[in-house]
Design brief:
The structure holds two protein chains of two kinds.
Chain A lengths: L7 E4 L10 H13 L6 E7 L3 H9 L4 E6 L8 H15 L3 E5 L2 H14 L2 E6 L1 E5 L2 E8 L4 E7 L4 E5 L15 E4 L10 E8 L12 E5 L8 H11 L3 E4 L1 H5 L20 E5 L5 H7 L4 E6 L12 E4 L2 H17 L1
Parallel strand pairs in A: 1-2, 1-4, 2-3, 3-10, 4-9, 5-9, 12-13, 12-14, 14-15, 15-16
Antiparallel strand pairs in A: 6-7, 7-8
Chain B lengths: L4 E6 L2 E3 L8 E4 L4 E4 L4 E3 L1 H17 L1 E9 L4 H9 L4 E6 L10 H13 L6 E5 L10 H9 L3 E11 L2 E8 L2 E8 L2 E5 L11 H7 L4 E4 L13 E7 L8 E2 L5 H14 L4
Parallel strand pairs in B: 1-6, 1-8, 6-7, 7-13, 8-12, 9-12
Antiparallel strand pairs in B: 2-5, 3-4, 9-10, 10-11
Classes of the chains: A alpha/beta, B alpha/beta.
Bound molecules: flavin-adenine dinucleotide.
Chain lengths: ~325, ~270
Amino acid sequence: MGDIDREIMVIAEIDEEGTPTRLTLELLGLGRGLAPPEGGVSALVLGSGVEKACSELASRGAERVFFLDRPELTPYNPEVWTPLLEAFLRERSPALVLAGHTPLGQDLLPRLAFSLEAGLVTDCVGVRAREGGLLFTKPVYGGNALAGMRITTPLALATVRARVGEALPASGPGGELLPLDLDPPAEAGMAVRERHRLEASECPLEEARVVVSGGRGMGGEEGFKILRELARLLGGAVGASRPPVDAGWAPTTCQVGITGKVVAPDLYIAVAISGSSQHLSGMGDSGKIVAINRDPEAYIFQVSDYGVVGDWREVLPAFLSKVKELAAE
Amino acid sequence: MKRGMHIVVLAKVVPDPEGPPSSFEVDPAGRRVVARGIPPVINPFDENALEAAIRIKERARGTITLLSLGRNLSRAVILKAVASGADASVLVEDDSLDQALLDSRATAALLAAALRSLEPFDLLLCGRQASDSNAGVVGLGVARILGLPAVTFAQRVEVENGKVVVERVLSEGYEVVECSLPALVTVSGEVGDLRYPSLQAIRAAKELPQRVMKPQELGIDLPSPWVETVSLEPPRRERRCRLVEADSPAEAGEKLALLLREEKVL
Ligand SMILES: Cc1cc2nc3c(=O)[nH]c(=O)nc-3n(C[C@H](O)[C@H](O)[C@H](O)COP(=O)(O)OP(=O)(O)OC[C@H]3O[C@@H](n4cnc5c(N)ncnc54)[C@H](O)[C@@H]3O)c2cc1C
């Protein structure tokens, strides 16, 4: 047990179906592991139509669920959210606030850090209790080093990656639901005009058990067709390193890495990817890693479990048909 | 805006993040990373921010000031960035400003103070995060200190009717946000690469105004850090790779499938 003597607060994110995201549930699990056994972890929900999400959070580890249900709170607008959270956190005074390292968490927590004069560590791959407080670990220098950090202010803030904590199973009657009595600011300097969803991949990348990713060596859009076919066959999703995304061969939503998505599937297949630190930082925790690359010296082989040295144009079709054959057996 | 826009771009000098892993030497005792054999560059996302600024200037007229902070800032790196389309540069420079050790609070406070001493600006742009600290905190901190509205993760930035209109990257797409000026916008890689300056432009840039300031001139005390680095380690990620041996790439593909089945990976 560390020095956590006050509450841990998890800022919840709710998806379009009105359910808490998996990362939110993982943060509750993580908070439970750090806090005193009873009563240590609360969730904070801002949004509209959040009732269902609140009861799920209550049964998945949140001792208390504070919520504010107002139409003005969706879609997320930091100019509306920040003053509300600031007021609430100042009064409630938790020891630690956790949010996902998502577009929302990355946008919101730095604002709170400066208005609440609180230390913040972003992109945490670990939060552990140790003598004298909490130790936050995060990749720096594009994943070429791992830093351990300590926060010196009474309130600590952190954004945490997927798969750092483990979601708890639903249990019992669960925690208390506590509505907040706060009014969103009447005016904001910024407004959300419209939202666009890019054509979603067959399966959300972060949730996939198998990810088939292509790199610069795919040579073009054409190359991603066979990756998509393989992903479909394996019930997984397609990912990419940054060059194919920059070149427009794959949508932005496919990028895996330090500035893309963080994935940790059971199986990651890296095709024509050299293994830069920025890429590894997003997939290094995968269960098994398979690399296909024509350069025997490619760094990706040093961080893989299985590998084939060869041109993907020849290796993949044969691999694909053998997998089909095996699946049919 | 009669005088045209004044855009300030915050640019951090970092070791080239595309350098090979072996060039990032981790010194656990000194709690710092020593970059060996790779040149300093402008943080790539700050370069994206500069590119966004240049595009706005092309349409709306105005001036761009590049603002950087640190110790021993490479003049060649700053010059090249300025030459790509900025009009002036301001450097807050001192031996005490070690980019590898300064925390976001102190950095944001110093930058905000420096910004107060410049010509008033309409738009402040910076990268979504620095490639060394990987934090993404300073830009929003500066906005908070100066009381500016802020928009993060721009893949497109435009100024229309005295407002900034930003396409913001989200996990599953993007949204369009508009914001009153002055404002801060953090820029993402999707904006596109910084244009390359001509040799002629680089030569001409040597004549552009450059101001160098000491932190002492900013009239603030360096705030104490909120976050401390207590350890630094190289990442542990090596695995033992079983390479598939075969007479042809196609055979290797088949053998890979069989091996993965045998190992219960598939
Ligand atoms: C600030 C910053 C953030 C970044 N964020 C990310 C990020 O989030 N994610 C990310 O992935 N990158 C990121 N990058 C980019 C990263 O540094 C690398 O440039 C990138 O990951 C390289 O992608 P790659 O491996 O596909 O390409 P390369 O390094 O060019 O490798 C291509 C590989 O394909 C192989 N190849 C070529 N043709 C064939 C063939 N026919 N068959 C088999 N193999 C073949 C080659 O041998 C080579 O190994 C970032 C960079 C910066 C500066």
